[in-house]
Amino acid sequence: MKTIFISFVSLYILWELLSGYFKTNLIVLGIISCVFVTILSIKLKIYSKQHERIRLNLKLPLYIPWLLKEIIKSNLHVARCILSSNESIQPQLVTIKPSQKTSAGIAVHANSITLTPGTVSIDINDKNEILVHALTNDTAQGIINGDIDKQVTKLEGNKP
After folding, report:
1. pTM (2 decimals)?
2. pLDDT of residue 103
3. Contact 92, 140 (CB under 8 A)
4. What one-character DSSP code corresponds to residue 40?
5. Domain ranges of the chain
6. Residues facing residue 119 across a β-bridge
7. What is the CATH number of domain 63-156?
């Protein structure tokens, strides 16, 4: 029930932000449409397995600034490697075991790795291990150290 309420409130806030109208009749129509979408979602059983994504989405605004900072740092590192004349590029494959408990958390973890320059998530196996291609030893160590893992685990609502 809590998930349904959060979904309804999120839908209504989004509707209000996108419409920009604060007239009574339009507010009532917005509430009616959000109730309709929420009921339709219940009938289609969307909430049965997808409720974990709503919880992640609510905490996402706290995670995005950290991820953007990491993307910028990785961009600078990859640019230095490309522009330097030494042999700093050592491509390698690394397998990590994420600490996330949900499939949505593991997906966010793998996508965050791919968004960070110098690393690409290649595969998630049956044991929920992520196979990562790293461009350098530094990027491989960054994945092994688990900074992304800790942040995504906090995003998921668990202790890192």
Report:
1. 0.68
2. 82
3. yes
4. H
5. 2-44, 63-156
6. 134
7. 3.30.70
Q: Taking the chain (160 residues) in consecutive chunks of 10 residues, what is each chunk's mean pLDDT?
A: 78 86 87 89 66 69 92 93 81 94 88 94 94 93 93 82
β-bridge partners, 92: 134
Q: Is the Cβ–Cβ distance between 127 and 73 less than 8 Å?
A: no
- State whether residue 133 is helix, strand or coil: strand
Task: Yes or no: say if 158 and 104 are a contact pair by the CB < 8 Å rule.
Answer: no
Burial 88-117 (b: 16+ CB within 10 A, else e): eeeeeebebebbbebebbbbbbbebbebbb
Q: How far apart are CA 114 and CA 93, in angstroms?
A: 13
128, two tokens: 């929920």
